[in-house]
Amino acid sequence: MQTQEFFIQKCLELAKKGKGNVSPNPMVGCVIVYNNEIIGEGYHKKYGFSHAEVNAIASVRDKSLLKKSTLYVNLEPCAHFGKTAPCSSHIIEHKIPKVIIGCLDTFHKVSGKGIEKLQNSGIEVVLGVLEKESREINTRFFTFQEKKRPYIILKWAESKDGFIAPHNQSEPFWMTSSESKKLVHKWRAEEDAILVGRITAEKDNPSLTVREVKGNHPIRIVIDKDLKLSKELKPIQ
Asked: What digits encode the pLDDT tens for the residues 174-213?
């Protein structure tokens, strides 16, 4: 017999497949279980496209089993109309009797409303299975919703003896290895924006795009309070 944690973990693994493609939405995965077996699964693949719950339900071959199944999802199903219809309504429509959720969606248009809608329709709801892990996977989303600011990561390259550039740097200088470069490009693909200062833009003339891995380019931001940068530099072309 598999545990609730096992199936929510499956949801988290599915959710990660949407990394870099769903922002500003959160990453969400969903599995549908009948007699302790997964009969359907799905994840949110791209912003503006179908949500995880809808994709999971669509993947079930025998829809008659939905009335006897449990739906697992790492984030509370939405209850509002946005780019797509509410997932909670879709679950109710298919008469799924039980929903197990990793964590609450703190977006103000959801924030418990999805759970309330399910419960008002007679659906049993369990909340808080692998809650910590379910929040961690969407740290960026929750930081924005709850703190009203972006989630920020800092990146710099430093030599073993504590230097970040040659003493008299006159042209771009590669401090990192090819492996490090690929990792940095992976990070870029996972973030919405990348920011550098004017001096970095002038000395390094970086493209600030994703090239070493497959992924979307982040929005490029350069801090230049005096507007001194040349329009010929790569970051602002």
From this structure: 777 888 888 889 888 889 899 999 988 888 888 899 998 8
Give catalytic status of residue 53 as yes or no: yes
Whole-angstrom CA distances from 3 to 10, 82, 99, 213 are 11, 33, 14, 36
CATH of the domain at 86: 3.40.140.10
Residue 99, both tokens: 């929903």
Which residue among the candidates 53, 76, 190, 191 is catalytic per the annotation?
53
Q: Are residues 210 and 104 in the same domain?
A: no
**Distance separating alpha carbons of residues 103 and 48, to the nearest angstrom:** 22
| φ, ψ (nearest 5 deg) of residue 150 | -70, 155
The torsion region of residue 48 among left (phi > 0), alpha (psi -120 to 50) and beta comes to: left
Q: Assign residue 128 a region: left if phi > 0, alpha if psi is -120 to 50, beta otherwise?
A: left
- My answer on whether 16 and 76 are in the same domain is yes
**CB neighbours (10 Å) of residue 132?**
9
